[in-house]
Structures are given as C-alpha cells and as structure tokens.
TrEMBL record, chain A:
It comes from the Eukaryota. One of its GO terms (biological process) is protein maturation. InterPro entries: FSCA_dom_sf (IPR034904), MIP18 (IPR039796). PANTHER family: CYTOSOLIC IRON-SULFUR ASSEMBLY COMPONENT 2B, CYTOSOLIC IRON-SULFUR ASSEMBLY COMPONENT 2B-RELATED. This is MIP18 family protein. Belongs to the MIP18 family.
Automatic annotation (TrEMBL), chain B:
This is MMS19 nucleotide excision repair protein. Belongs to the MET18/MMS19 family. One of its GO terms (cellular component) is nucleus. GO terms for biological process: DNA repair; iron-sulfur cluster assembly; protein maturation. It holds the Pfam family MMS19_C. The keyword DNA damage applies. Residues 545-991 form the MMS19 C-terminal domain. Keywords: DNA damage, DNA repair, Nucleus, Repeat. PANTHER family: DNA REPAIR/TRANSCRIPTION PROTEIN MET18/MMS19, MMS19 NUCLEOTIDE EXCISION REPAIR PROTEIN HOMOLOG. It is found in: Nucleus.
Length: 189, 1057
C-alpha cells in the first residue's frame, strides 16, 4: 500500500465501545457463577419455557452499530469502531414515510467520521458500510451513508458519490475496489 | 579372461557380480595368491587408454579390491603408493572413492592427507561442470578428511583455506550445498581467516537469501529451512564477518519480500547471539536505527516480533559480565536513542504509535536487570509527568498500560512472592517510585468515576502485578489494595458486564496464593460479616458474597477458615424455628462443594474432620428431620438433600477405606442412633419425608469403593430382594420426582457397579419382568426400564442386544403414550450422569456407545422404511402414525449422546433419517429437530460439505434448512427461534466448510465447482426475508449465514497463494 495518510490515529479500547447491556440481569441468581455448576433438582422434568418467544425485538441503532463496528479500516489493522469512524450516536433509524404510519419502510442513516479531514479513503469506507448494511438488512430498509458534517474537507463531494445510486452501482462493478471492500468485511463475523 | 576384464564387463550392469569378483581378488591378495603390485600392473593396459570410461572402470577395479580388503591389511608403504597412484589419476572414475577408503585407514598419515588435499585442489578447477553425484563424492571425501584429519588440513593454513573455498565455489545443488555449508563453517571457526575474511564471507553470503523450493515429492527431503539454518550458522560463525554481514543484512530489510526480510532478521539475531559483545556493541545503534522502522510501521506482525527479539538479544549481550550500572556502559549508549524514541512516542500514549513503543519497552526491559534499571531511570519519571498533565482518562489509561508493561518485566526479572530460588542481587529500581505508584494506582482505581470501567480495570491489573512482585510492597501496602478490592466487591453497584468485579475476584484469588494471611485477616471478616443469619426473602446479595469467597478460598489455610465459618452459619440455621428460604443453606453447601471440587481433598490433612462434620453429622441430622424431630424443615428439602448428597459423595471418595466402610454400613441408616430412624428399604408405608432420604443414600452409595460392597446392608446372601424393593418403588407413580430419580440411580448403581457377574441374572430377570409381553407401560415403568438398561448396557452385559431389541420393540407399541415415553427414554441410555459416572467407579466400557449405535441405527432405519412403504402402499394406514416420529425421536436421543466420529461411517444410512426428522412439524418435535440440527452442525463442521455431497443430499438438506429458518409458516409447522438460529448456523457452516479440514494439509483438492452453487440464488433470496426475523439472535445468524454464502460460494474455487 502507498504511504499511509494518517499513520498515528487515536484508538479506542474495545472494552469501552458501546454494547448492548444484558437486558435481564438478575444480579443475584442461582444460575450465575459457581451456583450454575450444580444443577437444581427442581428443574427436573420441567420443560424449557419459551415465553420469551413471542416478544419481538425490533432492529435498533445498537444492532446497526454492531453490524458495522467490526468492519476493518482499509489503512490500519483496526476496526471502524476502535477508530471511532462509526459511533452509536451517529446512527439514526427513522420511518421513511412518516406520513404513512403503517408503512414498514425504514431509513437507516449512518454518519461517518474520517480519522483526518483529508482522508481519500472516506469514500471507500462509506461504500464498505453501505455494502455491509445492504447485505445484512431486510429489503424494507433504505440505507443512507454520509460523511458527518465538518469532519472532511471534501465531504459534500464524497456524499454526492455515496448518495448517487448509479455511481455506487458503478463502483461496485469495479473488481479492485470490491476486493478492498471484501477484505474490510473479512473481520465481520 | 582375467578378473579385471570380467570386472570391467559387468561393472556397469551388475554391481553385485562386480563386487563378488573384487572380493574374490581381495581374498587372493590376503591369502598371498597374488599381490597388489600384480593387480596394479594388470591395470597397465587400460589406465592410459584414450577412453576415460575405460580408465575409470580400471581404477574402479582397484578401488573395489581395496574396499574388500580387511582394514588392517595394507601397510603404510602400500597405502602411500596407492595414495600417490589415486592422487595422480584423481580425475578418473573410482579414484576419489579409493582415496575415501584409504583415508579411513589407521595408517593414513598426515603427509598423505596433504597429498590428497593437494590433488583435490589442483585437479578439480572444473569441478562445477561435472555431474552432481561426482561433486558429491568429492565433497564427501573432503568432509571425511575434515572430520578424520582436521589437524593436517589446518596445518596447510591458507593453502587449504583457499583450496577448499575455490573447490566449492559455484555449487548450486541443495544436497551438495548442505555439505558445502558445513565444511565451510568448520573453516570459518577453526582456521586463521584474517587474510581471507572477504573471500570466505562472499563464499557463503552469495547464497543469501535462499529461494530454494523443494520439488514436490522430493526424495531427499531437504527443505529451504535446512539450507537457511546452515547458511545462517556460517554467517554468524565468526565476528570478523561483522563489518560485511551486518550492513549487508540490514540492506536486505529494504527488500519488498517479507520472506527475505524474515531471513535477514533471523540471521541478524543469530549474529547478535554469536558475535562477541564488543562487536555487537559497535553495531548496536546502527541496528536499532534500521529495526525501529520495522517496529513502528508494522508491515507484518512477525517482522516486528523478530525485530523486537533482535533488539532484546543485543541488550542481553551487552549486559554480559557487567556488574555495575553506569551511563558509560555500551548498554547505556545503546539504550539512549531507544528510550528517547519511546519517550517521544509516549507523549500521546493513546495513539497508535504508542503500542509499538510499549512493545519496545517490554522486550528491552525484560532482557536483563541492568537494562531494566537503565530504562526505569529514564522512562518512569517522564511518564509520571505526562500523567499529571494528561487532559483525559483515555490518555491516563494508556500511560497506566505502559507502566504495567514495566511491572510485567519486573516480575520476569525479580519473580513473584511464590517464585523459588535465589533473589536477584540488584535492588529493584522501581522501589524508588513505590509510593508514587501506590498513590496513582489507588487514585485511579478508587477515585475515578464508576463508569470508567476499563480505566479502573487497568489500574487494578497494575496494582495486582506490583502486589505479586517479589520483595516490592510491604504487607500493609498489599493490605490496602485488598481493602480496595473488598470495597469494590461489597459496596459498589454492578456496572455493565461487571468486568471490574470479575477482575477484583480474580485479583483476590491471585493474592491468596501469595499472601493468604492478608485474605484471611482482611477479606474474610469483611465478607462473612455481610452474610445474613437467614434469608428473609428481601436480599440475595449473599449469593455474590459466597461466590467470591468460594473463588478465593482454594488455598488450604483459607479453605479451613471458610469451612469453619460457613459450617457454623449452617449449624445455626438448622437450629432456627424460622430459617427463611432454603436457598441460603443450599448456597452455603454449594459454596463448600465448589471449593472442595477445586482442591484435591484426598491429600487434605483435615479431610477426616470434614467427613465427621458433614457426612456423619449432617446425615444424622437428615435422619432426624425425616423422622420429624428437627427444629425446621431445611433438611427435608429435596434441593438441600441433593447438594448435601454431592458433598457427601465427594468426601466419601476422598477418605480412607476404614471410613468408607463406616459410610457403607450407614448408607441407609444415615448414622442415626439405633431406634431413632427407620431406613427406607423394605419399609412399607414410609412417608414422603422418609423416602426422600434416598437422595443422600444414593450419593453415599455412589462414592463407595467396590471393595466395600460386602458392607452394604441387605446385600447378603444376594441383592435380589433389595433390587426388587427398588424396582417396586421406582415404578410407583406417586413418588416425588427427585426421590424417584434417586431410586432410579440407586438401582442403576447397584446393578452396574456392585452386582457381580454371576449375579447379573437378577437384574436381567427384573428387566424381563418389567418388559416381557407388555404393550402398554406407565411412564415410571418406562423410566425404570431405561435406567436398568443403562446400567446393563454400559457394562456391556451379555444380554445387551436383547435389551436394545426389547426397547425398540416398545417404540412400535400401539399405545401412543408408551411409544412416545419410550422414544424420549433413549436419551437416558448413554447420557452422562453425575451419579453413575466413571468418577464414581461405575463400570463404563469403552465400546458401549459404539455397540448401542451400531445395533440400534440399522434397526431404526429399516423400521422407518417399513413404515414409509406401508404408508405409501396403503391409504388406510395400517400403522398408527406415531411410530415414525417415535423412532426419529429415539434416534435423536442416541445421537445427542455420542460423538460424531462414531456417526461418520453410518452417514449414508443416517442422513435420510436426519432429513426426515427435519420434516417433522409439530410442537413436540422441536426437541428432536433441535437435536438433529446439532448433529448436522457437528457433521458439517468436522467434515465439510463433501460428505453430504457424496451421499447426494445437498439439495434436500438446504431446502429443509431454509424451511426451518422461516418464522412464519403457511402450514401448522412451529419453528422456534432456537430452531431458526440453529438451521442458519448449519447454512453458515455449509458455506464456510466447503473443503474438508484434512484436505488442506498437502494435496490441494482438484479445482471443481462447489456443490452449493446451484443452491446459491435460492439461499440468498430466502435468507433476505429472514433478515427481518422478529428475534435479534436469529437475525444475527442470518446475517452471518448470508454473508458466508455471498462471499464463500463461488463458481471458481479461491486461488491459494
């Protein structure tokens, strides 16, 4: 690879990245710690209750974040989450047609913060995020990936590129570019 | 025709015959029938012939004859003559081999060595144009001269040096090179080379880097690594090479090939370790200047690691023999630019470049105590300054990380408190900063905002390292840390994933190994004080307290304290009229059980005490409670009895045979005083409370050694009455579930572990009594049958096949209930059990699982085929439709308890059955389908798609998996979230395991189109909808599976490097 543009970015600790807090913490539960090792004979013959099954878990911002935080930066062996290129407060899910309350259509907006303002790879990163989301979200979601305002010297230019369906489609036909993007997504598991 | 002529005729095509001729001539020489002179004269007419082949054959004849002579036959004079003769004709075939033979003789003198060497040097200028095998022969001769007559060659001085180098220059064959390198290395090490440094260096360095790749199926088995190793030995063999070698190797780091760089670094490391410290010192800073870039701008992880190893090696060499620290040391000179660089990078420690700086510090500071001291002197103070001025916690955390690196090195150099062996003579330079460390770390750990978990965890880990570092903190300073940890665990609310608490527990456990006293004096009182007298249902915080206590009490002294404290809590509870929830006493028992499981109780000196308190004391209390004489009903509770039973079981296994016999006699009476308690066996009209004591009895029985069998009550003259009694109790429908399980296990234990071979018929009679001639059985009876079968099958009783056939027969019972209960029972047969286990000395034969599998599967398969055919042929369905699901359920039960290694050979039979299992739709088939998906996942994971493709079922499998991933189905089918996620996992595995695991090693599979390709479109379309599943876990699995199919399933297999 050519000379790196930003060879010394700040890195967030993986443990500090936002995660979904375990929803039902029972702080003191016989199922925890050393007490899980001994089966409770009261469980005997009881069948697993699947009451939770009916509970719906809608797609939320954290889920979108989890989908894209693991994408690798094309320049560093680090993830977009660690480099704070994507962050939870910069992800929004809104109904696409607010005037039609029954419409299932949703729009996901992801704002990207490049590590430096003149990063020429911003477009590639944006494309990567876009591809990842389009592969991973159901068809009723519209994906909108943009550079966060004021974080890039040619942000408008990049946004135009990322927003233009034709240009995105053309870019995805480009073999070399797709190889870079496939490499970025290898770390998504 | 003379022997010579005969020899020359056959030598090319019949080696054996030629050898025989030579041997017979040799015999003639030894028995004086002919002389060597005559033989040499015989050669006369050929050795001056024009044709070199003819000459060669003639000389070979002489060589063969000499080879066949006994080693002491030739006189020195004869050897001299022959040496000269061969030397003169050294270019002719056979002469080198002749000299080879001669030089091995005792009478081969120094002069002859010189003569031979001279002959080699002056006649083989054209050696490199000869064949590989001829060159090999020459090198072999030289190599032998080197090992047998090195002194003579050494005395030739420059002549031999130059001669050897010239002779071998230009060699290209890997087999020959192996020898060339080893000969040259001897010259480099032992010859005086001052005048020929360059010549020698070039002679080997020209081969760097080695790019040799052995041809496939190379019969000689020489690898590039072998050659690299020998070349490296040569380059690093003599410090005089340094002026050439080190700059040249550093130049190679400009290469674009990571492999070349790797070779250069490895060689450099070898040089650092073998050149003398003065030489290393001269180049140390130059090396640092170059390697710095490899570490700071990581190109490949391994290059950075090798560079760090090289830097560390230099520091180690420069520390050799140094006893006092001073700034004039070569070591200090070397470290100066390094610390400068690190200090600069650490100015912004949260940035990416700080990581390599930390790595440099880590490897250099752990290289020697001197390097450690010098680094600490220059690095620690600036870190404190940045820390004080830091504008954010992220930066401070990164600095604490850096300090931790130094603490880790300190541990490597000075050891932990538990490290044995002498202490290091130097004072630990970190001691100077001890109070500062304690302040900063304490402040970070306890003063930071509670949400700053990762910052506090970093501080905690640093503090822990210093606390375990030998001879560093005083006990009261570690005590302070222990108090912090107690506070975190006892007073702080949980935050997020509780990482800090987990680390705190781990830290206390670690300290308990080094300073058990501190844990007993500080942590124990604090924790025990928070334990309530009883659980009044308002607060269950005691659970996490007990959890922590359990994890820090593995050390012997601490455990003794724990036991005393908890046992007295428990005793008080048992005396209370109102003891509160039984969860609390159970938690206490579980805590004791957990710690005892972690320790080796067999060697604990207090084990008899624990036995008396728990097994004797508490069992007696159980008997009292069962007779209604206790203050409360704690010991009437089944969960308490189960936990107590496990504890007793462990203790019985750990005590002496005498104590075990005592336990055996009291298995049923539970140490009750005579008349106080009626044991369960043969006690008709026992209350539920009394019957429940069977839980403890069963665990006691399980712990006993087989040697105590005769001490168990009711077993003389035979156990048939006891077994009958147990069977009778087991088939009863109104026993409590926990008590029922205890009876079943007890029955199985007696039959499997204690019944002698002669008495097996007792169990078989019981089995037949339950099963024979009956089409309808109660659920309890079916469970009894299966536990009895389990006991017999695991020891591979002679009637195993009969038992399995009978069980399968029950599946076809016209009674749907019987059939369904039987089907579920099959999972009991081979499943692991806590009581009937190898630990408890049960008889579990290795082949039992295989036997069950190979007996049952073909029978199930053919039965299902029958049912299928009958169903198709006859619209009226003569067979009830519960039979097929019952068989599939039974199969799933068996599969879930055996390893896939056993399954693989039967896969072609099995796969259609598994696919039919996936076709089941109803709610009660969920468990069967889940088990089937588990089995499929393991099969795919371990063996890849190929095995499924071989059976021709890829399409059917994918189709059914996709059907199972649908949350909403048109039919009545029920796909629970777990089933959907499992099916997706199978799809994911299919796409990631397209080549089987073992194929990767040598022969790459022939390029072929993936069998998954025809399915790809369908899968991607179908999974797109699953991405909208209402459940998050299912969506996650769908994303992974879809991604794997998008990326992994392609028409052209991926090109491997």
């Amino acid at each position: 690879m050519a000379e790196m543009q930003n060879s010394n970015p700040t890195i967030l600790n993986v443990a500090d990245l936002p995660t979904r807090s375990p929803s039902t913490i029972k702080a003191a539960d016989y199922g925890n710690g050393i007490f899980a090792a001994v089966p409770n004979p009261a469980d005997f013959l009881s069948s697993d209750s699947e009451d939770d099954d009916l509970l719906e878990e809608p797609i939320d911002e954290q889920e979108i974040y989890d989908l894209i935080k693991c994408i690798s930066d094309p320049e560093h062996p680090l993830s977009l989450g660690e480099l704070a290129v994507v962050s939870l407060p910069d992800i929004f899910i809104k109904p696409t047609l607010p005037n039609v309350p029954d419409s299932p259509l949703q729009t996901v907006t992801v704002l990207i913060t490049p590590t430096i303002t003149h990063c020429s790879l911003a477009t590639v990163i944006g494309l990567g995020v876009r591809v990842r989301l389009e592969q991973s979200l159901p068809p009723r979601f519209r994906v909108d990936v943009r550079i966060k305002e004021g974080t890039h010297s040619t942000g408008d230019e990049v946004n135009k590129q990322l927003g233009d369906k034709e240009r995105v489609a053309a870019a995805l036909e480009n073999g070399a570019l797709m190889q870079v993007i496939a490499k970025m997504m290898e770390t998504c598991q | 025709m003379s022997a010579l002529q005969k020899f020359m005729l056959v030598v090319e095509h019949d080696k054996e015959e030629a050898k025989r001729i030579a041997e017979s001539v040799a015999q003639d020489v030894e028995s004086k029938k002919t002389t060597l002179i005559e033989i040499v004269q015989m050669l006369g007419e050929y050795i001056n012939d024009e044709d070199p082949i003819l000459r060669g054959k003639a000389v070979s004849f002489l060589t063969s004859v000499i080879k066949s002579l006994s080693p002491r036959f030739l006189s020195r004079q004869q050897i001299q003559v022959l040496t000269t003769f061969f030397g003169d004709r050294i270019e002719d075939g056979g002469a080198v081999a002749g000299l080879q033979t001669l030089q091995a003789l005792d009478r081969f003198t120094k002069e002859m060595v010189t003569e031979t060497a001279q002959a080699l040097f002056s006649n083989f200028q054209d050696l490199q144009s000869r064949s590989q095998s001829q060159r090999f022969q020459v090198y072999q001769l030289l190599n032998n001269l080197m090992s047998n007559h090195r002194k003579a060659l050494l005395e030739m001085g420059d002549t031999s040096l130059v001669g050897i180098v010239d002779l071998m220059t230009g060699e290209k064959d890997p087999r020959n090179l192996m020898m060339v390198f080893s000969i040259l290395k001897v010259v480099m090490v032992e010859w005086e080379i001052t005048n020929h440094v360059e010549l020698l260096f070039d002679s080997v360095y020209n081969y760097f880097p080695i790019t040799f790749r052995p041809p496939p199926n190379d019969p000689y088995g020489i690898t590039a690594q072998d050659l690299k190793g020998r070349l490296q030995d040569c380059i690093s063999s003599n410090r005089l090479f340094a002026p050439q070698a080190i700059p040249a190797l550093l130049d190679k780091l400009d290469s674009t090939s990571p492999n070349v760089k790797k070779d250069a670094l490895n060689t450099l490391i070898a040089c650092v370790h073998s050149y003398d410290p003065d030489t290393v010192s001269r180049y140390s800073i130059t090396i640092w200047e170059v390697l710095k870039f490899e570490i700071l701008n990581v190109q490949e992880e391994f290059l950075s690691e090798l560079s760090l190893t090289a830097l560390q090696g230099i520091a180690q060499r420069l520390s050799e023999g140094v006893t006092e620290i001073s700034q004039d040391l070569p070591l200090a000179q070397y470290l100066k630019p390094i610390t400068k660089e690190c200090n600069e990078q650490l100015q912004e420690p949260q940035q990416k470049q700080a990581k390599p700086a930390q790595q440099i510090l880590a490897s250099l500071s752990s290289s020697s105590v001197l390097a450690f001291a010098l680094l600490v002197q220059t690095v620690v103070a600036p870190i404190f300054t940045i820390y004080q001025e830091a504008d954010g916690i992220v930066k401070q955390r990164a600095l604490l990380d850096t300090l931790s690196v130094l603490f880790e090195s300190a541990i490597q150099i000075f050891g932990k408190w538990t490290t044995r062996g002498a202490e290091v003579a130097f004072e630990n330079p970190l001691l100077e900063f001890k109070d500062q460390f304690s302040d900063v770390l304490g402040q970070a750990l306890m003063g930071a905002a509670k949400e700053e978990v990762s910052f506090r965890v970093t501080a905690l880990k640093g503090f822990l390292r210093l606390s375990t570092l030998r001879g560093f903190f005083q006990d009261n300073e570690i005590g302070l840390f222990v108090q912090y940890l107690d506070e975190i665990l006892l007073q702080e609310e949980s935050v997020g994933r509780d990482d800090l608490k987990k680390e705190a527990i781990a830290a206390l456990a670690e300290i308990s190994k080094h300073k058990p006293r501190l844990i007993m004096d500080i942590t124990f009182p604090a924790f025990v004080a928070t334990l309530p007298d009883e659980d009044d249902g308002t607060n269950t915080a005691y659970l996490s307290t007990l959890d922590t206590l359990a994890q820090i009490s593995v050390e012997r002294d601490i455990f003794e304290t724990l036991f005393r404290r908890l046992f007295s809590k428990l005793s008080i509870l048992l005396q209370k009229e109102q003891p509160g929830s039984v969860g609390y006493p159970r938690a206490i028992l579980v805590t004791l059980l957990y710690v005892m499981q972690q320790r080796d109780m067999k060697v604990d000196p207090n084990v008899d005490l624990y036995f008396d308190k728990i097994v004797v004391g508490l069992c007696r209390s159980v008997s009292e409670a069962a007779s209604g004489k206790a203050k409360n009903r704690v010991l009437n509770d089944a969960t308490i009895l189960d936990t107590l039973g496990r504890l007793c079981n462990l203790l019985v296994r750990s005590v002496s045979i005498q104590k075990q016999e005592q336990a055996a006699e009291n298995v049923y009476s539970l140490f009750a005083l005579p008349g106080d308690f009626s044991p369960v066996p043969f006690f008709h009209g026992a209350t539920a409370d009394q019957e429940r004591t069977a839980i403890v009895s069963t665990y006691l029985l399980a712990g006993l050694s087989k040697d105590c069998a005769n001490r168990i009550p009711h077993t003389c003259p035979d156990v048939s009455r006891l077994i009958q009694d147990l069977v009778m109790r087991s088939v009863s429908e109104d026993t409590e579930p926990a008590t029922h399980l205890a009876f079943l296990r007890q029955l199985a234990l007696l039959v499997n572990k204690f019944l002698s071979k002669q008495d097996l018929h007792i169990a078989e009679t019981a089995f037949d009594g339950l099963v024979a001639g009956k089409g309808i059985l109660s659920p309890s009876a079916i469970r009894t049958v299966f536990w009895l079968s389990k006991a017999l099958v695991l020891r591979l009783a002679p009637t195993t096949t009969h038992i399995l056939t009978s069980l399968l027969g029950l599946l076809s019972s016209p009674d749907q209930q019987t059939s369904a209960a039987t089907a579920r029972g099959f999972s009991i047969l081979l499943s692991e059990d806590d009581v009937l286990s190898a630990t408890n000395g049960a008889t579990i034969r290795l082949l039992s699982k295989q036997r069950v599998f190979t007996t049952v599967v073909p029978m199930i398969s053919s039965r299902i085929r029958e049912v299928n055919i009958a169903g198709n042929a006859d619209e009226t369905q003569t067979k009830p439709d519960h039979i097929k699901p019952a068989h599939l359920t039974a199969l799933a039960g068996i599969l879930s308890t055996i390893s896939t290694a056993l399954v693989m050979p039967e896969l072609p039979t099995l796969l259609p059955l598994l696919l039919q299992s996936l076709d089941l739709q109803t709610l009660d088939s969920v468990a069967v389908r889940a088990a089937t998906l588990d089995t499929l996942a393991v099969i795919i994971r371990d063996n890849g798609v190929a095995v499924i493709d071989k059976c021709g079922h890829v399409h059917s499998l994918v189709e059914r998996l996709l059907k199972t991933t649908q949350a909403k189905t048109n039919s009545s089918a029920v796909n629970t979230p777990r089933l959907r996620a499992d099916a997706l996992k199978c799809l994911y595995l299919l796409a990631t395991k397209q080549t089987s695991a073992d194929a990767g090693s040598n022969a790459p599979p022939p390029p072929s189109i993936s069998p998954l390709l025809p399915e790809k479109n369908q899968v991607l379309r179908s999974l797109r909808a699953v991405l909208d599943d209402p459940k998050r876990d299912v969506r996650k699995a769908a994303v992974d599976a879809r991604g794997a199919w998008i990326r992994g399933v392609d028409d052209a297999p991926e090109e491997e490097d």
